[in-house]
Automatic annotation (TrEMBL), chain A:
<keyword id="KW-0812">Transmembrane</keyword>
<feature type="transmembrane region" description="Helical">
    <location>
        <begin position="113"/>
        <end position="138"/>
    </location>
</feature>
<feature type="transmembrane region" description="Helical">
    <location>
        <begin position="186"/>
        <end position="208"/>
    </location>
</feature>
<dbReference type="Pfam" id="PF00528">
    <property type="entry name" value="BPD_transp_1"/>
</dbReference>
<keyword id="KW-0813">Transport</keyword>
<feature type="transmembrane region" description="Helical">
    <location>
        <begin position="75"/>
        <end position="101"/>
    </location>
</feature>
<dbReference type="GO" id="GO:0055085">
    <property type="term" value="P:transmembrane transport"/>
</dbReference>
<keyword id="KW-0472">Membrane</keyword>
<comment type="similarity">
    <text>Belongs to the binding-protein-dependent transport system permease family.</text>
</comment>
UniProtKB/TrEMBL annotation, chain B:
<protein>
    <submittedName>
        <fullName>ATP-binding cassette domain-containing protein</fullName>
    </submittedName>
</protein>
<keyword id="KW-1003">Cell membrane</keyword>
<dbReference type="Pfam" id="PF08402">
    <property type="entry name" value="TOBE_2"/>
</dbReference>
<dbReference type="GO" id="GO:0008643">
    <property type="term" value="P:carbohydrate transport"/>
</dbReference>
<feature type="domain" description="ABC transporter">
    <location>
        <begin position="4"/>
        <end position="252"/>
    </location>
</feature>
<dbReference type="InterPro" id="IPR003439">
    <property type="entry name" value="ABC_transporter-like_ATP-bd"/>
</dbReference>
<dbReference type="InterPro" id="IPR047641">
    <property type="entry name" value="ABC_transpr_MalK/UgpC-like"/>
</dbReference>
<keyword id="KW-0547">Nucleotide-binding</keyword>
<dbReference type="InterPro" id="IPR017871">
    <property type="entry name" value="ABC_transporter-like_CS"/>
</dbReference>
Length: 280, 372
C-alpha cells in the first residue's frame, strides 16, 4: 500500500504541473507572439513557416517606426496622467465612503451599502451613453475631463476598502477619537497607513483597468493630443495594416511593458492585499 | 477636580436593554472598579462616560460639568483599552506623542510637509519630546521609543498604552479590562503598578474588569454590575462582608461563598445557633466563617470530597449529608487535618451567616452585623 502512495503523489504532481504549463502557455502565447512579431520584417510576418526568432532582425526598425510615426511618448504620458488622476480622485471618494460604511453608525447605512453592491453589478458599458450625453451637455467631450470624470466613483473601490476597514479594530478608532483626532484625520493618519495592502491592490486594479481601456476613450475622445496608449495604437491600424503589423506590435509591446514592470515590482503586495481582503 | 456623576443612564441596542437606570457618583481622585460578568454593560457604561457612545436617557457630568453630547476629546478623559489599541504604523514615541500633538499643534502645524516649516512648530515639538520622554521614563519604556508596537511584548504594549493615556494629564482615567490580555504573573505585577500610578497621579480612575480579585485588590470602591444594573457599590471590604444581594455575594470572594438552602438546615439549630428571619430562603457563609469538627461534637455531618492545598491554606470540600450540596471550608495547615472520605462535623459562626430571601435580597441579621 504505502509503496504506491509516493508514486501516486508524484503522478498527481506531474499532472498538476502539466495542467499549469498548458494553461500558462495559452495565456502567454499571445504575448510571446506579439513580441516575436514586433521583431520581424513585414515579409516574414505572413510566411507560412513559423519562427519564434526572426531570420532578419527588424526590431530596431519596427520600434523606431512605433515611436516616431505616432506620438507614442505623448500617448504614454497621457496614459500615466489619466490613470494617476483617476486613481487619486477615486481614493478621495472611496476612502471616506468606505470609512463611513465600515465604522460610522448612522441611519440607512446598510441600505447605502446595498446600493454600492448593486453598483458593482452594473457593467460600465451600460453607462456609456448616459455618460456621453452628460459630458456633451457640459461641453466636456474630447477633453481629459471626459476620460477621467466617469470613473471617479468606484463601487468596487468602496466595497474593497470597506471590507478591509472593517477588519481594523474599533478600539483603535476609539483611541484616536479620545486622542483628539477628527474623523478626517482618523482616515488620513490611521486608516490609510494601516490599509496599504488594500490600497495597493485597488491601485493595481484601477490602473490596469484604465490603462488598458479602449472602449471609453474611443467614445469620448478624438484628438490625438489627449489619446491614451490603447487608443493611440489604433492609429497604426489603417487600411495598410498589413504593412504596419510589425510597428503595431512594437507599439503594443511598449504599452504593455510599463504595466508588466509595475506588476512584477508590486506582485507580492498585490497578492497579499487580495488574500487579506478575501479572508475578512 | 473631576468627580463623575451618572444619573439614570439607560442604553439599549435594538430591543435589548444594556443599561437600566444606572446612577453612580464617583469621587474626585477615587479608584473605582466596575466589576461584573461579560455582557453586563460595564464596558458600555465606560464608553458612555468617555463619549464614545451616546446614552438613550440620563445624564453624565465630569467635574460638575454636564458632558452629554460633548465629543470624547472635549471631556478631558483618557482611556486604556483591552487590546491596547496602539497605532501599529507609528513608533512608540509617536504613539505617546499623538494626543499632545493634536492638542498643542494647530491644524496647519499638523499638516504633513508644510507643518514643520510653520513658526512655533519646533518649540512645541521640543516640549512634546520632553513630556513623552518623561512619561516613558516613568513607565520604564524609555528604551523602546523608536520601536513599533508589533515589536513589543504584551506588558510593554500595556505600558505604552498607559503612557499615551497619561501624557496629556487627563483628570479621569478610564480602563477597559487593561490586564486581561496579559499572563497571570504579569497581571499581578501590573496591578500594583497601576495602583501606584493612581496614587502618584491622584486623578480619578474608573477601571472595568470581570476579575473580582482585580476589583478587590485595586479599588477604593467597587461597583458590582449585572444584567445592566448596579447591584451594590462600596469598599471591597464591605462587599465581601456585607453583600446586599446573593449575586454580589457569589461574585465577590474566592473561593466562592457557600450557599445552602434553608430547608436543608431548618432543624439543625446547633449548627446555626442563630435565629433565622422568616423570609430567609438561602443561607450563605464565607469559607472561613465555619470550622470543621469531629462528628461527635457537630451535628451536621458531611464527607470530605476534595482537598486543595495552597500551602498557606487548605480548602476542604465537604459534601453535606445526602451529597446534594457541597461547601468549601478554609482551614490552615496547622489545624487538625482531615483526610479524603472522612466524616466531619460543621460549625458555622452565627455572626457571619448571611440570609437571603427568595429574590436574593439580604434579610434577617443585616442590621445587627452592620452595627457591630
Amino acid at each position: 500500500m504505502s509503496a504506491h502512495r509516493p508514486r501516486y503523489r508524484l503522478a498527481g504532481r506531474i499532472a498538476r504541473h502539466v495542467l499549469l504549463v498548458v494553461s500558462a502557455t495559452f495565456a502567454l502565447l499571445p504575448f510571446v507572439w506579439m513580441i516575436s512579431l514586433s521583431l520581424k520584417p513585414p515579409d516574414e510576418i505572413f510566411q507560412p513557416d513559423f519562427h519564434l526568432w526572426p531570420k532578419t532582425f527588424h526590431g530596431v526598425e519596427n520600434y523606431r517606426v512605433a515611436l516616431t510615426a505616432a506620438p507614442m511618448l505623448r500617448f504614454l504620458l497621457n496614459g500615466v496622467f489619466v490613470c494617476a488622476i483617476i486613481f487619486v480622485l477615486q481614493l478621495m471618494v472611496c476612502v471616506p465612503c468606505a470609512y463611513a460604511l465600515a465604522k460610522l453608525r448612522f441611519r440607512g447605512r446598510d441600505t447605502l451599502f446595498s446600493a454600492v453592491l448593486v453598483g458593482l453589478l452594473v457593467p460600465p458599458q451600460a453607462l456609456a451613453i448616459p455618460h456621453f450625453v452628460l459630458l456633451h451637455v457640459f461641453g466636456l467631450l474630447d477633453t481629459y475631463a471626459a476620460l477621467i470624470l466617469p470613473w471617479i466613483i468606484s463601487a468596487f473601490g468602496i466595497f474593497l476598502l470597506r471590507q478591509f476597514f472593517r477588519s481594523i479594530p474599533d478600539e483603535i478608532i476609539h483611541a484616536a477619537r479620545l486622542d483628539g483626532l477628527g474623523e478626517f484625520e482618523i482616515i488620513w493618519r490611521i486608516m490609510i497607513p494601516m490599509s496599504t495592502p488594500a490600497l495597493a491592490a485597488f491601485g493595481i486594479f484601477s490602473v490596469v483597468a484604465h490603462w488598458n481601456d479602449l472602449f471609453w476613450p474611443l467614445i469620448a475622445v478624438r484628438s490625438e493630443d489627449i489619446s491614451t496608449p490603447a487608443l493611440g495604437i489604433l492609429l497604426f491600424r489603417d487600411d495598410e495594416a498589413g504593412q504596419f503589423l510589425g510597428p503595431l506590435m512594437a507599439g503594443a509591446t511598449i504599452i504593455v511593458a510599463p504595466l508588466l514592470l509595475a506588476f512584477l515590482l508590486a506582485q507580492r503586495r498585490f497578492i497579499d492585499g487580495l488574500a487579506t481582503t478575501a479572508m475578512k | 477636580m473631576a468627580e463623575i456623576e451618572l444619573r439614570g443612564i439607560e442604553k439599549r441596542y435594538g430591543e435589548a436593554p444594556v443599561l437600566k437606570d444606572v446612577s453612580l457618583k464617583i469621587k474626585d481622585g477615587e479608584f473605582l472598579t466596575l466589576v461584573g460578568p461579560s455582557g453586563c454593560g460595564k464596558s458600555t457604561l465606560l464608553r458612555i462616560i468617555a463619549g464614545l457612545e451616546d446614552q438613550d436617557a440620563g445624564e453624565v457630568s465630569v467635574g460638575g460639568r454636564p458632558v452629554d453630547g460633548a465629543r470624547p476629546k472635549d471631556r478631558d478623559v483618557a482611556m486604556v483599552f483591552q487590546s491596547y489599541a496602539l497605532y501599529p504604523h507609528l513608533t512608540v514615541f509617536d504613539n505617546i506623542a499623538l494626543p499632545l500633538r493634536t492638542r498643542q499643534l494647530s491644524f496647519a502645524q499638523r499638516l504633513p510637509l508644510i507643518g514643520p516649516l510653520l513658526p512655533g512648530h519646533t518649540g512645541i515639538e521640543r516640549s512634546i519630546r520632553k513630556e513623552v520622554e518623561q512619561a516613558a521614563a516613568m513607565l520604564d519604556v524609555a528604551h523602546l521609543l523608536h520601536r513599533k508596537p508589533g515589536q513589543l511584548s504584551g506588558g510593554q504594549r500595556q505600558r505604552v498604552a498607559l503612557g499615551r493615556a497619561m501624557v496629556r494629564h487627563p483628570t479621569v482615567f478610564l480602563m477597559d479590562e487593561p490586564l486581561s490580555n496579559l499572563d497571570a504573573r504579569l497581571r499581578v505585577q501590573m496591578r500594583t503598578e497601576i495602583t501606584s500610578l493612581h496614587r502618584r497621579l491622584g486623578v480619578t480612575f474608573v477601571y472595568v474588569t470581570h476579575d473580582q480579585s482585580e476589583a478587590m485588590t485595586m479599588a477604593d470602591r467597587v461597583a458590582v454590575m449585572m444584567g445592566g444594573e448596579l447591584l451594590q457599590v462600596g469598599p471591597p471590604e464591605e462587599l465581601y462582608r456585607e453583600p446586599q444581594d446573593l449575586r454580589v455575594a457569589e461574585m465577590i470572594g474566592s473561593p466562592k461563598i457557600n450557599i445552602v438552602a434553608r430547608a436543608h438546615w431548618a432543624d439543625d439549630r446547633s449548627v446555626l445557633s442563630a435565629a433565622l428571619a422568616p423570609q430567609a430562603k438561602h443561607l450563605a457563609f464565607r469559607p472561613e466563617a465555619a470550622v470543621l469538627i469531629t462528628p461527635a461534637d457537630g451535628v451536621t455531618n458531611g464527607t470530605v470530597t476534595d482537598l486543595e492545598n495552597l500551602g498557606s491554606d487548605i480548602f476542604v470540600h465537604v459534601a453535606l449529608r445526602d451529597g446534594s450540596e457541597t461547601v468549601v471550608i478554609r482551614t490552615t495547615p496547622d489545624e487538625r487535618r482531615f483526610s479524603l472520605g472522612s466524616t466531619v462535623g460543621l460549625k458555622v459562626d452565627a455572626a457571619r451567616l448571611m440570609q437571603f430571601d427568595e429574590a436574593g435580597r439580604r434579610c434577617g441579621n443585616i442590621e445587627r452585623v452592620a452595627a457591630a
